[in-house]
Amino acid sequence: MDMNEIKEIFFQECEEQLAELESGLLKLNDGDRDPETVNAVFRAVHSIKGGAGAFGLDDLVSFAHVFETTLDCVRSNKLEPTQDVLKVMLKSADVLADLVSASRDGGGVDESRSRSLVKELEALAHGGSPSSSGHDAPKPAAKAAPAPVAKVDLPKPSDDSGFQPVPFSFDGFGEDDEPAIEGSVYEVSFKPRRELYSKGNEAALLLRDLSRLGEMSINCDTDALPTLDKMDPEASYFSWKISIRTTRSEDDIRAVFEFAEWDCDLEVKLAEEASSNEELPMVPVPFDLSILDDSAGGEDEEKTAERGVSEETVAAAVSAAETASNVSRTARAAERKESAAAAAAAQNNAAAAAAGAGQTIRVDLDRVDRLINLVGELVINQAMLSQSVVENDATGTSAVNMGLEELQQLTREIQDSVMAIRAQPVKPVFQRMSRIVREVADMVGKSIRLVTEGENTEVDKTVIDKIAEPLTHMIRNAVDHGIESPEKREAAGKDPEGTIKLTAKHRSGRILIELADDGAGINRERVRQKAIDNDIIAADANLSDDEIDNLIFMAGFSTADKISDISGRGVGMDVVKRSIQALGGRISISSRPGFGSTFTMSLPLTLAVLDGMVVTVAGQTLVVPLTAIVETLQPEAAAIHSFGANQRLISIRNSFCPLVDVGRVLNYRATQANPVEGVALLVESEGGGQRALMVDAIQGQRQVVIKSLEANYTHVPGIAAATILGDGRVALILDVDAVVAASRGQSMKPEMSLAATG
Amino acid sequence: MKKKVLTVDDSRTIRNMLLVTLNNAGFETIQAEDGIEGLEVLEGCNPDVIVTDINMPRLDGFGFIEGVRRNEKYRAVPILVLTTESDAEKKNRARQAGATGWIVKPFDPAKLIDAIERVTA
To answer: Which end of chain B is more exposed for a tag (fewer CB within 10 A), N or C?
Structure first.
């Protein structure tokens, strides 16, 4: 793994953290005051900052830092997370997301926006916590050497003269001249307290590090050591006086004791050259680092015993002082030998526990796609094989047939499993929508909350990728046109804050996405008038409420009197509808004046396979998506009623349903077929109405692999896609909605021209 | 024998960086994702040094350090704290909990190895 891969992981993690951040903030917005929610939000920003720092993404770090500081105020209850505060934070989360994508993909961000948010965040942090002064400049480095901080906390040197040692460097004077005696001599007095050892620090290691700064001599003061019976093995009894000649500064010397400075008495002072050489109070002894080479506790103890505590060698003294840690080390060493196997087993468990936390792997999407393609071919191949076996063996009882059946089942299972790999929750798309709601509502001065449900509903990744755009458009529409202004809402006796509800759920092998607003609903009078004005319907057309509502999906239809910035970007609901249809989906609207509108999208879970009914129409083989079919029936002559010039109805259980001759609509034949000779497929079209599709015969039900017609040929009105059947022939998959729409008297013309231009 | 390092951090990015850095420097690395898991993994993994983050879900770095220091068997293991903040308060709290030393983020491989060398023999 190299840094680029880790960076990729970082950006993936950012996505997750941003999602976490947003959902946490939204929870807080809903009144959740669970400290863990606040913590999770804080952690999300903190993690992004931490990773960004490692990659030197300074813009990201500095913004995250300010954001984090403000969040910390919330976390420590210095700042109440009111709606206003959260508004700023949600916006900040958006900017943070922009910064992340700018860091990943290049490109800029709206600097003025982020700057003004930085100010707002800082104002919140300061306003909320007048006492907190810890707003260090948001520099990514945070490299301030700890030494200066430490100085404040350290006991001042006993020297009252106020003498300040001046660190100086000889770098400027040719080093070769007097290398041996360069530097100045410092006297370091070091007395550890017991806490130093209990926190895992070791005097010997500190002295070892110090010895790397220059040539030094050490004296150990063992006077405080009590007799063995009175000795506390975990206490600290020794202190050291070190005289070191170094070219480094006093700060460098103190930096060695950085980790220990709270747990020891430390004095560092520049010694006067003469006295340090001649008047050392104690006999200098060489510092023996050998004890550090072997960490086996037993030996250390032996050494200690041999040399005796009175012997004035640093090594022994350190060993004795170290008894506390040695004891535990010895215990550890002993145990290591005794139960090596047990420890190994435990270690395995631990590793397993570590691995069990997240049992996922990341796979390149291309690989999955290749697999899906191959499985698609496998399904076709298996179907062809079945067919040729059936053709050559009419008995249908042979072992080959049994095997084939099993093969079919296995193929199906493989296909389902592969599809499951691509399945993803719709959550990320839904979360993106909440940002859009926020931004658009801000722009138009409305107050709107987005409620999401069923975010964990899974659907094929390609569907997710392609749903975002139409959904965004619909959300913008709902905010801009659907929800009324707060004043109007209040006048109508509604909550001034509008609600948009986004729901996802699985329904009979498809995913259903609902977008409901509690706005004013469709103004049917206006829609109708507009449709007449735009020549979409005849002035005297008799349309049901549902049909009027669905007029908004017509090409060239827009009720907005003026084109607005937000939703009037030259794309109407017809484009939304077309992109949904391109996904093999349907969209419809239901609306209650005064109570709002609900858009319902029904989408296939995958774009790769389809359960279909294979039928013949005028000698052509067609596939009708099974999800569209409600029932099939054999029409009787008595049930068929003529209506108008060319229309026919079929009566089914006391209700009439328009009969659609598929062969006629698709121009396979010039005259209408006799319904009694064919089969009727009762389908539900997106408007909610039922139609009976007339076909000549049903061949059977089959799972087919969808091959895009547009990608390989061109869009054909009334046809959704193509597939390859078991016998190797290409069959067209019927676009039921388009066929139904094409047959619908009034709306036939625009609908067909829409399809033709698509 | 390779020195064994237990790292505790909830960020996948940092975990990977630690892993790469420590493995390149010849350490054996064991990783946990939060304080609770850290304490679980600690049993039986017998590390020479522990490197832990502060902000983590379930059990944060302070709690984790306290947990290690209460453990009879492992209380003497040096613990280094990974901290983004240079502010003394966090460092102090980590020290009070029993941290041996700290590494100030942004993550720098050289600083990490240096700090580990400083607290281990």
So the answer is: N
Contact A175, A260 (CB under 8 A): no
Residues of chain A contacting B119 with CB distance shorter than 8 Å: 200-202, 205, 259
User: Does A198 contact B75 at a Cβ distance shorter than 8 Å?
Assistant: yes
More confident of the two residues A308 and A412? A412
What is the b/e burial string over A98-112, where b = at least 16 CB atoms within 10 angstroms of the residue's CB?
bbbbbbbeeeebeee
Instruction: Tell the CATH superfamily of the A426-604 domain.
Output: Histidine kinase-like ATPase, C-terminal domain (3.30.565.10)
Across the interface, do A200 and B33 touch by the CB < 8 Å criterion? no
> What 3-state class would DSSP assign to B114?
helix
Please give, rounded to a whole number of angstroms, the shortest distance from the CA of A50 to a CA of chain B: 6
Burial level of A320, CB count in 10 A (0-12/13-18/19+)? buried
Q: Kindly list the residues from chain A whose CB atom is less than 8 angstroms away from the CB atom of residue B87.
A: 134, 136
CATH topology of domain B4-61+88-115: Rossmann fold (3.40.50)
CATH architecture of A609-757: Beta Barrel (2.40)
Bridge partners (DSSP) listed for residue A733: A623, A721
Ramachandran quadrant class, A205 (left: phi over 0; alpha: psi -120 to 50; beta: rest): alpha
Q: Identify the CATH class of A3-128.
A: mainly alpha
Pick from A467, A506, A681, A430: nearest CA to A585: A467
- Residue A623 — very low, low, confident or very high, per pLDDT cuts 50/70/90? very high
pLDDT of residue A182: 65
The pTM is what?
A: 0.54
Q: Which tokens go with A692? A: 């009976």
Mean pLDDT on B42-58: 86
Interface confidence (ipTM) of the complex = 0.84
What is the distance between the alpha carbons of residues A675 and A660, in angstroms, rounded to a whole number?
10
Quick check: A659 pLDDT over 50? yes
